[in-house]
Automatic annotation (TrEMBL), chain B:
First-level EC class: transferase
Membrane-spanning ranges: 12-35, 160-182
Keywords: Kinase, Membrane, Phosphoprotein, Transferase, Transmembrane, Transmembrane helix, Two-component regulatory system
Reactions catalysed according to its record: ATP + protein L-histidine = ADP + protein N-phospho-L-histidine
Protein's cellular compartments: Membrane
Molecular function per GO: phosphorelay sensor kinase activity
Record-linked PANTHER family: HISTIDINE KINASE, SENSOR HISTIDINE KINASE YKOH
Pfam families: HAMP, HATPase_c, HisKA
Recorded superkingdom: Bacteria
Cellular component, GO, one term: plasma membrane
Location of the Histidine kinase domain: 245-458
Name this polypeptide is given: histidine kinase
EC number: 2.7.13.3
Length: 225, 465
């Protein structure tokens, strides 16, 4: 997987490149908007991580220009401006996701994985399967090892989100955004409580837990090794 | 303010322009009156002369020259003798009768109505009198002249012209004086405002524009400016306080963070200890970020930049949605969370900020209410406006502290040991202000009851999509 990071802050860029390389990506870095635009339009990348305010060319302009050129690679926009309106602007310009600074690297990695995954399956799914856990999106039923699990609507949405990103880390902020459509920091561990309730329903009584907590980052639903 | 300045004001220029229009229209009006009245007097004289001539001619036809002479002699002694002039002459202009001594030379060859100065005897002096006269040829070479003294008419004309001139002059004088006075008066008020704003710009934020109490536009302006200044002063005071609080509240965790890293370095730990220290550091940093985010949200809500994002919103679904998020948390703590709706409460609201405000209220309620306890969220459609009320059975907030807890970073608990940053209610307050809503904290006996009351929506349009 080859990623292009367009970020003008040297330290932030070094930290991003290092983190991404350690997570197994091949990373190129551009320090100005113009360099970034040149690289992005001349070489194939699997995804772009673009800072919004850049010297030379604005991050949103880069994304818009690339989209007009018909380039569809996923783009994750980074910005110091994280209000809902700014997010909407970033997403309208053609970004796939938007992350406000300061961010946790785990959050960035989780979101990057999520947008990379998006590019792969174009088919609308009606069935999600992780190990022996099955979700039927049409009849809205969940079964584990053939045994029906009763979920409340919000638990269903939560599980759906986790299953769609199976194998990836999903952060609390992502869950709050994707399941509840809220873009704020709850002061308490409200998401943890929801996840622990869901865990009780899907993992209790089964020897191998599917829903794992990733310390300092979030949660990950995966088939036990 | 110097008088020269008053003459240069817009008000004075407007007064001058108005005065010019006024003078022109009154001059036209007075001119018309003059023309109409003096014309009427002229026509009256003509009619009198013509009527007199016709009467005398009639006398002559009936009684001959003897009858005419008799009538004229009578008339010359009558009560209008002073005003009317008569003379009858023979073929060679020799006087036969009348109150004139000679046939006026101007009328030897002219017929019709003629106006000329005539010498008349007044007492023992001869005086030139403007006279309007008409001559008539009688058969047998006699001539008859009937005239009328027009002194009265000229006098009237002079008086009217004088009156017109005076009234125009007075109008002009009063207009100029009035314009000058109004300009000076208005300028004084504007000057006061200019002086105050100058002093404020020079750094004295406490200055206020004087209000006269007349309730006029200038008072309105002054009140508005003063309200604006109050707000600016309050905001600046708030900012100063926030800076102090940040210094305190951010410095403490930053210090802790630094100390932890330092100690970890000193104690020569193993890898596991390093990892633990780093993890703790990250958690601390996360808390700091959360505090910053909360402050940014408050700043954003306070700046009111989202005013255009307010849309007609039904409060019940919004509250249900937030309550759903918090319900497991409450249950986990042994609290019951109840949602109740009375009527369809609708307000102009920003969904995100309002959700966050309700979330903060629930968060607080859950944080402070001991188990077992009850938390309720209610929406109600009241005649005063839509309401959201969150109540809990916790310790509540004593009345004297209720104002204080709305300020940033204020926490009643001095030790600041429970998690939180003291920004929760500040955000609720900022969001309420942005929505024009009223935030009240009351006693739930026991516990706290927080109510957000929105201003009623005037237009009854269906909700926009």
């Amino acid at each position: 997987m080859k990623i292009l990071v367009i970020e003008d802050d040297r330290e932030a860029a070094a930290y991003l490149v290092k983190g991404l390389e350690e997570s197994g990506y091949v990373v190129d870095h551009a320090a100005t908007g113009t360099d970034g635009m040149f690289l992005a339009s001349s070489q194939p990348y699997d995804a772009l991580v673009v800072d919004r305010m850049l010297p030379g060319m604005d991050g949103l302009t880069i994304v818009e220009t690339l989209r007009r050129q018909g380039r569809t690679m996923p783009v994750l926009i980074l910005s110091a401006m994280g209000e809902v309106d700014d997010r909407v602007m970033g997403l309208k310009a053609g970004g796939d996701d938007y992350l406000a600074k300061p961010y946790a690297f785990a959050e960035l990695l989780a979101r990057l994985e999520a947008v990379l995954r998006r590019g792969q399956s174009g088919q609308p799914t009606t069935r999600l399967i992780v190990g022996d856990l099955e979700m039927d999106l049409l009849s809205r039923t969940v079964k584990r090892r053939g045994q029906v699990i009763d979920l409340l609507p919000r638990e269903f949405r939560l599980l759906e989100c986790l299953m769609r990103h199976a194998g990836q880390v999903v952060t609390r902020t992502m869950l709050l955004e994707k399941v509840w459509d809220y873009h704020f920091d709850p002061q308490t561990n409200v998401i943890d409580v929801h996840v622990s309730r869901l865990r009780q329903k899907i993992d209790r009584g089964f020897d191998k837990p599917l829903l794992n907590t990733v310390r300092g980052a979030g949660y990950c639903l995966r088939e036990p090794a | 303010m110097s008088p020269r300045n008053a003459l240069r004001t817009t008000t004075f220029r407007l007064a001058l322009a108005y005065l010019a229009i006024f003078v022109a229209s009154s001059a036209t009006l007075l001119g018309f009156i003059y023309w109409a009245t003096s014309g009427a007097i002229d026509r009256e004289s003509e009619q009198i002369i013509e009527a007199e001539l016709t009467g005398l001619r009639e006398q002559y036809r009936q009684w001959g020259i003897v009858g005419l002479v008799r009538v004229i002699e009578e008339r010359s002694k009558g009560d209008r003798a002073d005003e009317m002039r008569y003379i009858v002459v023979g073929p060679r202009f020799e006087r036969v009768t009348g109150n004139l001594s000679v046939w006026p030379p101007e009328l030897r060859d002219r017929r019709g109505l003629v106006e000329f100065p005539l010498s008349v005897r007044v007492g023992d002096r001869s005086e030139k009198r403007q006279t309007m006269a008409m001559a008539f040829d009688l058969p047998n070479g006699f001539r008859l002249l009937v005239g009328r003294d027009t002194k009265e008419r000229s006098e009237f004309r002079e008086r009217v012209i004088g009156a017109i001139a005076w009234s125009l002059a007075l109008t002009l004088a009063f207009g100029l004086m009035g314009g000058y006075w109004v300009s000076r008066h208005l300028m004084r008020r504007v000057d006061a405002i200019n002086r105050t704003s100058g002093e404020i710009r020079a750094g004295d934020l406490q200055q206020r524009v004087p209000v006269t109490g007349k309730g006029d536009e200038f008072d309105q302006l002054a009140l508005n400016l003063n309200a604006m200044l109050d707000q600016i002063e309050r905001l600046m005071g708030g900012m100063r306080q926030v800076t102090n609080n940040i210094a305190h509240d951010m410095r403490t965790p930053l210090n802790r963070l630094r100390a932890r890293l330092e100690v970890t370095l000193i104690e020569k730990p193993d890898e596991a200890r390093y990892r633990e220290a780093i993890q703790e550091t990250i958690d601390e940093a996360d808390r700091l970020i959360a505090t910053f985010n909360a402050m940014l949200s408050i700043a954003e809500a306070e700046s009111g930049s989202k005013a255009e994002s307010l849309a007609r919103t039904e409060l019940a679904p919004l509250v249900d949605h937030v309550a759903e998020l918090y319900e497991p948390l409450a249950e986990e703590k042994g609290l019951t969370l109840t949602v109740a709706h009375a009527g369809v409460a609708v307000a102009r609201a920003d969904r995100h900020l309002m959700s966050q405000a309700v979330a903060n209220l629930l968060d607080n309620a859950i944080k402070y209410a001991p188990a077992p306890g009850a938390i309720t969220v209610r929406t109600a459609d009241t005649p005063l406006g839509a309401e959201i009320t969150v109540t809990d059975t916790g310790p509540g907030i004593p009345p004297e502290s209720r104002e204080a807890v709305l300020a940033r970073f204020v926490r009643l608990e001095q030790s600041r040991s429970t998690p939180g940053n003291g920004l929760g209610l500040s955000l609720v307050q900022a969001v309420a202000k942005m929505h024009g809503a009223e935030l009240t904290l009351a006693d739930n006996a026991p516990g706290l009851a927080v109510t957000l009351r929105f201003p009623p929506i005037r237009d009854a349009r269906p909700p926009a999509k």
